[in-house]
Amino acid sequence: MGRREEPAWASGTIGLTAARERGDIDRKFQARLTVTRPMIDRLGLEKELHGHRGCVNCLEWNRDGSILASASDDLHVILWDPYRYKELMNVNTGHTGNIFSVKFLSDDLIATCAADGTVRTRSIQGNSTLMECTCHCARVKRIACAPDNPHLIWSAAEDGLVLQHDLRTNHECNPDSHNVVVNLLNHLGRYAEAKCVAINPRRPYQLAVGANDFYVRLYDTRMIKLAKLAMDPQVNAPASRPMWERQNQRCSRAGHGDPDNNIPKGAVHYFAPGHLSMEPNEHTFPKKATTYVAFSNDGNELLVNLGSEQVYLFDINSARRPVLVESFIIQHNHGNREGEGKQQAKNGTNPTNGTVDPNLQLPDRIRQLKEMANDLVNKGNYPTAVELYNMAIALCPDCAMLYSNRAAALMRRGWSGDTYAAIKDCYRAIKLDSSHVKSHFRLAKGLMDLKKAREAHECLLYFKDKFPRHATSHAVFLLQKDINVALENMETQPDEATGDNEDSQATSHLERQLRTSALDYSQRFLGHCNTTTDIKEANFLGPDASYVAAGSDDGSMFIWCRKSGNIVRCLRADDSILNCIQSHPSTFLLATSGIETVVRLWSPRPENGEEESRVIRDSSSAAAANQQRMRSDPFEAMLLNISFAGGSDRDLHSPACRPT
Questions:
Q1: Could you read off the pLDDT of 474-503 as tens digits, one per residue?
Q2: CATH number of the domain within which 434 lies
Q3: 93 lies in some domain
Q4: What is the pTM of this model?
């Protein structure tokens, strides 16, 4: 057997010295101590930075965190000293539309993009423009750059294009420019829009793109051929040219795929929440859109903020298909109804795949959490019960009973995506303990609640075979009755796939293939509301990404524990809508901005007994109110934002931001 690896600081003087030289100790302590729960509990407002005259749409720290850049609807970029709260430089960018993204390419170079359809780079010291790209014909929403390559920039715009810009070459916006990485129009149809883009910091060849749908696309740029722009140099009508180009030239192959197979099938993977990707009709209200994507520091996880939905975490290395696709129950019913499987069902036994359910040996803390949660379920307080189950599962992830109980609470809470999350919990519980009766029954019920009558029927058949003593219960009788009615309706009603067929004609064959193979999320974070703006961010906090933060339409900043998914801190960070949250690269200092003209800095406050005035104590009620907002129409949501968030001391007169 190999020698057990000791921590660097336990390896003796020589090993300790070597580890210090390699930086192992610094990285270990930085990862663990930069952002901790006690620090989050003390997080409060440190300073407000005033200088902009419009909504602040984007924030960016430079590499060492010594400068914070903010860009606004006032068309200016301001560089701040975050430690002295001092404005270092106010840059007139030359943009004629709202600035949506700013990035540091180096200590002296910044890049910006805006609603005027341009991407610009400029020197800070020289205060001069180095590049101005006008290849896009619609609003450019995000730009991305690789941490170790200051020469390349990627831009995502609402014309459906993701472009690559190389600062080492002289760029001219003409039809011969080979700078199109992804043309979403070719695959999604003429109404495709690129909303956000991000580069994997560990594997810079991985490019994540979010569009005006709920799919996140992860491209391997090593396998992609750069394509030409579809432009007509003879068209000289500046006012109408962008729209004319989009409708008549760039949409000429809308939905037909790349003309030269620029993006082979193996070059891209799709990620989407399972309950959304399995829906037969994607034209649901409200319309979903991906507003932000961010990689973890180790490059293994992707954090996604979905408009009109939740924040989701995807493991890009080990993500799996939605659970209904991998149903072992259906496989059992159709492949093993005769023989060993049936005999096991008769005996009421089944292999447990070598796992042992530790229900009878739960630690006291876990048992207390479970009992408290069960009591809350009986009292009808499902949101708080889910939080307690989350805590218990985070501490004891191999207990089938906890997953099954949480599934019951989720189905009763009924927030967006809860039923599907409950089904995932039931599958997890069954894999941990295949003889857990309630998990099997709740799985069948959850499938029926999702209107998956055929899958629910298969699941109930399996349940009756496996647990014959429970097959004649009243609950099983009622569920079987509902399933039979749904199956009869499916047989008598005409196929409702007409609309889907029409939609499929607008998408390429590759697009349809990739959507059906979309990979599912590993964790989700609920509580915020994202319906009003399409630039709302979600970011990891700390080098080890133990916490996640996002803004909300009610002006709140929500911080979640990544492991449990629970809200751990909620602060009122904007008097209208909070869009941006950016974490300092090496210390626990957050910068936030939104509809107000103010940039706010947040840090752990001194332990002097003073109470943070901007903290929202009842985060559960705030989360429930936001769920109501996301289910209402936009006008109702606007009224809810005014009436519910922030209380009576709220300034209802937001600054007049420039229209886009």
A1: 999 999 999 999 999 988 876 554 444 444
A2: 1.25.40.10
A3: yes
A4: 0.89
